[in-house]
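In response to reviewer comment 3 from the previous cycle, which asked for concrete evidence that the modeling workflow produces usable outputs, we include below a single protein chain processed end to end. The sequence was submitted unchanged, and the resulting structure tokens are shown without manual editing.
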Amino acid sequence: MILFELNFNKIAHPLTGRGINSSDTGKFFFPLILLFFVSFPFVIAQDPFVVHRFEGDIVFDGIPDEDAWGKVIPLPVTTLRPVQGKEPSEKTEILIGYSDEYLWIGGRFYDSDPSQLQYSKKRDDSDENNDVAGILIDCLNDNENAFLFVVSPAGNRFDMTVFNDARVDSPNMNPFNISWNTFWDAKSTITEKGWFTEIRIPFSSLRFKEMEMGISMGMTAYRWIPRKNEMIVFPVLDPKYGRWVRFQPSLAHDILLQGIKPTNPVYITPYLLGGGKMSNNPDISGSSYKRSNNTIMEAGLDLKYGISSNLTLDLTINTDFAQIEIDDQQVNITRYSLFYPEKRIFFQERSDLFNFNLGNDDNIFYSRRIGLYNGSIPVRIYGGVRLTGKIGKFDVGFINMQTAKYATQLASENFNVLRLKHKIFNPYSYAGGILTSRIGTDGSYNITYGLDTYIRAFKDDYIDLKFSQSYGPGIENKRLTDNTFLRLFMERKNNKGWGYRSAFNWSGNEFIPAIGFLRRVSVYSFDERLRYGWVPGEHSFLYAHQVYLKYVSFYNTKGILETINTGPGWAFETRNKYTGEIEPEFHKEILSDTFYVDKNTFILKGDYSFFSVKGKLWTPASSKVNVKIDYELGQYYDGSVLSLKFKPQWSVSHSIKLDALYQYSRVHLPSGNQRYLSHVLGFKSLYMFNTKLSASAFIQYNSAENVFLTNLRIRLNPREGNDFYIVFNEGRNTDILKEPIELPQVAYQTIQFKYSYTFML
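The workflow returned the following structure tokens.
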């Protein structure tokens, strides 16, 4: 056993909370698994599947019936659910081949009752209530990142990237980027026998590495039949690895292609943007609001160039995100910051490569720090460059962006991010680093670097080590630990049998990553979880379930306890895809200052112990009508809390989808008879005229912020890379007297027209 010796000023025992003074004990030890075992070859040898090369022509019509297809042997598929390892209930043939320009996938998906097929006309529809077929491709065969291509019986396409081997640090996180798009085509046909499809993916859209033996990639293929909750897969997958098992590149089967000549086209996408904006802003005196009307006239350009078969350069000029959907409204009754996901496509693409996760949502690089003031107000981005891919044996990511000045609040700034990763020991482990900088024309600056390694120590056991430091004006760095972040993390990735998760984080008083996100600062924490899971046989109504015990604690950097959350839990998933969880939890919160839930509701400093229960119940997402219910109730400091989130979804037809949200949050505090009450309502509707034209509405009300928001969008997408958007946004104040100065009823209104067209050179 290797012992790491750390001389922190004061560390508290994770169970007793009693401080351990470094001057008394001198040392604090963290045991780690012997790195000797890391080099053990855990990879089970598998013969690569040699992909058939077409000699004849393929007529791209959605029916794989040409003579060339007849020479392809279908993949040996089996079921993953509702019971693993069975013959599919519907005959399924998935074929794969290639020509000089394309990777081809053919599907013959027979169905005993094609009238029961479920699908929509929406582009990029990721809902589980659609019949689909998908292929996951780990282009670089790095067992960590992959592209997913999905097609429906209507010929609708959906693509996304998978990162971090589909691992997540929180149950609320998803290990993929659904906003990623690339150039590929698919056609489908529905007959009385079922549905059939052809997918063709240009090799120019796949980044791969050339070897003497040919091109080696990882591949997983699947078919989903929602009305039967049946997942059919190749290769054989074990449900013990959890809900994202079919997306894990490390479990994909190797395929081999030979004689492929990579092409490196240049994609140029200019855009034109026009419209108008009305806004009400405080006047110079600050005693009233003044209305202003502005015309919007913009133009810009995006360029994508494949420098090599596995290295891509992106250039953006006058970057615009007018077409993105507005953020979902959230309610915060905790002491810590809310996290909002990135929705801007430029920053979502290959975002996995820049990931330097510090636990849960915390990260060294949080792209919403670029081009947004206070997290929501757009700041002009003059332009930037991004380089992603492989150079030699290194995974490389580089971003440089320049933003404009925003009024008097924010200087013009330059942002840089450099990320490097290199495989070590085995195909599932790496070592790497990150460097970020944020430099303003007013002399402000922040530089943060980090080093990390992710190691597969045993078949299902992983170790994650991270070290980071930040520098900038006002950071004195009197001690090594002041501007330092350290993370030691161990986990067994297995939902069957015993599993565990153990993490220690240290965040120094002056650790400030200016392009990052930290929910809590100036703390160190312990996160310990022990679980036992079952994957019952086919005669059980449960598909999988687990019980667990967790202990999470936070201390300030002086060793004083701030928070404890501990308790047992039970999570389950049934064979027909009902999922649920219940988690009784004991809390201990020590407030060193008054905590304001909002400006009228507060909790005095002191020591609080209380108990609550939280959980969820989700009906099958494969149903046309499904509901997600999340809840929390019980004690809250010296009072009580009740929180309920209700999210129904209805696929009315192939053309209409409706989503709604209602979130109710109530806090009662006996001191001063204080009450906090908030309602968040949301409604989304989508109408697909056909697979190329759609209209959507997103309306939200948040009583905590007293706002009513509207986002209306019309999209025409005749082909990949060719888009026309009409977007209307409006923000209204529902309580114009909540501030000393009377607020305008309409805060802003914008209407924008955006057209973009991609040229390939």
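The mean pLDDT is 88. We consider this sufficient to address the reviewer's concern, and the full set will be provided in the supplementary archive.
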